[in-house]
Fold this protein.
Amino acid sequence: MMGARQVDQGALFYEFCLDRHVPCDHMLRAIDRFVDLSGVRAHLEPYYSAVGRPSIDPELMIRMLLVGYCFGVRSERRLCDEVHLNLAYRWFCRLGLDGDVPDHSTFSKNRHGRFRDSDLLRKVFETVVARCMAEGLVGGEAFAVDASMVAADAHRQRGVAERGALDPASNRAVAEYLAVLDDAAFGGATPVEPKFISPTDPAARWTAAAGGPAVYAYADNYLIDLKHAVIMDVEATTAVRQAEVTAAKTMIDRTAETFDLRPERLAADTGYGSAEMLAWLVDEREIEPHIPVFDKSERTDGTFSRDDFTYDHEGDVYVCPAGKELRKYRRAFATPRTGVSKDNTVRYRASKRDCDVCSMKPRCCPNAPARKVPRSIHEPARDRARAIARTEAYVTSRRERKKVEMLFAHLKRILRLDRLRLRGPCGARDEFLLAATAQNLRKMAKLIAAPAPMMAT
């Protein structure tokens, strides 16, 4: 028969164990094994006063932020509500049943103050990377680098045409933008002025992905280890290719300094295949570039390309298909000249007399009196990259490079970081560091099985 609910007097005492009510297969249990925040208090100690009221525990705030970025909780207001109600979140944050959840404004105050002053979020990120290395998830031989645009928190239909229209006292993001005008990752990345500047987040670049609408955006740069796609470093830059290449150099050097890891090869797309970047990898860092060479000399009109000309290293000349020489100069100068132009190339020219009587002129230089062939001063590094592109290892690297693109897809679809919530270069840096930390923690939780529980005897 149908029973009725019995309303009895409530028990006077309750016995409740929070640990028992968190499922054994919950992601936070797996992540908790790899979260080591023991050094946070010592790292922040110089930034706290020795007198006054006790502050909110910084370890609690970091744990709450990790919860938010691991589960895609983008709002700190909502994060506080979720931690207050969710037993698993309370367990992970060490709050117990009756622990007070800090107010959302506490995060803003600490983020704009001692967290950024001490670079705490990078410290936490590097601690997690070190744990990945200790668990054997990092090979250290092959890295990949790439960048992805993340939309800024700026209205795409509001903008000013020039920097002088910005009010330095309007908000924190404008002040941060004015402070990084000479930074190679932001204002100093390119002399090209943006078409529009956002008055709310001017460091965000007005740009567009292929086939997409123009938006204000930052570039999220990842350097990953190809063994298990562990993120070794992350950098926030303006969304232009020059800044992304500079970020790649910064991340490679910082990884070598912090973790003493120097990869043997680096995989990347054509945007990183400039002559200067390839020379930096080959000559200065002794890293094999598994990168397509960025070459603007390729012709599509059916005429001879530069590959049809043979370079003679001993004579420092090019030989055309007709057997004629192309030289830097046709006469001697009293003062020797290098022949290097502003774009770091040397142009080899054929003789007009040879070209006028050549039967191959319609296929070589039909619209010019004589043929010219440019050669970069970093051409040996480009030749090295071309030789690597013909190997089986290069094919493998091109396939494994997709791992970094999968990380960006996971970042935007699962962690919901397709649009920034914080403004300014510092805000973008904080969000990217926390998201990369969450991705590495989730990676370890997935790949490293939890130890079997001890059976009672």
User: Anything to note?
Assistant: The mean pLDDT is 89.
